[in-house]
Amino acid sequence: MNKHTDIDIVVRYLEDPENEQLKSELNDWIEQDSANLDIFLDMKAMWQGDPLPAASSYDTHGQWQELNKQLVTPVTTSTPASAPVVQMKRRYWWAAAAVLLIAATTWTFFWPGGYQTFATNQQRDSIRLSDGSMLYLNANTRVRYAREFGKKSRNIKIDKGEAYFDVTKQQDVPFIVNTPEVAIEVLGTSFNVKSENNTVKVFVESGKVSASYKKSNKKVILTPGMEASLRLHQNEIDTKTYNKQNNVLAWKTRTLTFDDTSLSDVAAALSDFYQIKIKIDNPKVADKKLFATFPDLSLDEVLDIIRKTLQVNITKTNDLVEIY
User: What InterPro entries does this protein's entry cite (predicted)?
Assistant: First the structure.
């Protein structure tokens, strides 16, 4: 069985874990080689966007028991219905015992098909690619690219999340970023891609970027300060142009800047930056203007400054902030 077939078995199962046929195929594949269980557990963690556990905390026995519950099938025998018998092949336990322990700092995984995956959980991180380009990942982001990246092509796929690209110019090898339905192509530039809620947003800081739907000829050329919003399963592209004071890249710079900005827009930026919900019911309060710069401050510090500066009331309960 070749490596491409191996990864197909695991990916198909992860896409449809309730499918009995896929469970059976995965079951047979894991039995073939003790290393296959290790590969499956790693791929499952990366697929779900989970951080890989520290060696000291990796519960191999528990992981195998949980996997076995999903893969083995009760067998009908003469045993009473209240005590079903479960068939399990003995080699599984030997395979489980051979699982390699993985260090907590590991966040890169080479897929059997020749792809390298990088994922972040609550942290942010950066990668220098083989062509010299820099890739900055926001929290809860997963990207992947071929091991041969940079030799004949420079293609990267964003599975989820947000990433900033500072691309080294190579005239003969375009740099292409793919999401499920949108392709972004550049030669040398700096831009940001955010994929969430069935929408892909592309913001250009420098250079020129082409963003297009894969299934149609609909595309847009973006220049510095422009952002395009492309919604999945649609064919429309919305664009807007920001002035120099915007917070599209605040997650990377860790600085929020507001220049005569309405409180409603401030709330939207804070909501995105701190991953919270902000509610403003009073239109007069929402229209208040704010001049402020917040260099990597905590949410509580920012809210306290807004409260004192704009003379508003603010209450915070868990992940909900109300301004009135």
Answer: FecR, FecR_C, Ferrdict_sens_TM
Residue ranges per structural domain of the chain: 3-97, 114-241, 254-323
Contact yes or no for 122/139 (Cβ under 8 A): yes
CB atoms within 10 A of CB 53: 17
- Give dist(CA 145, CA 132) in Å, integer: 15
Structure tokens at 190: 């700096």
Fold entry, domain 114-241: Jelly Rolls (2.60.120)
Please state the pTM of the whole predicted model: 0.63
At residue 319 the predicted structure's pLDDT band, cuts being 50, 70 and 90, is confident
Strands (E), 60-198: 74-75, 85-86, 108-110, 115-119, 125-128, 134-137, 142-146, 154-166, 175-178, 182-186, 190-196
At 183, the amino acid letter reads A
Q: What is the CATH number assigned to the segment(s) 254-323?
A: 3.55.50.30
Judged against a pLDDT cut of 60, whether residue 51 lies above it is answered with no
Is residue 150 over pLDDT 80?
yes
> How much is the pLDDT for 267?
95
Three-state DSSP at 158 gives strand
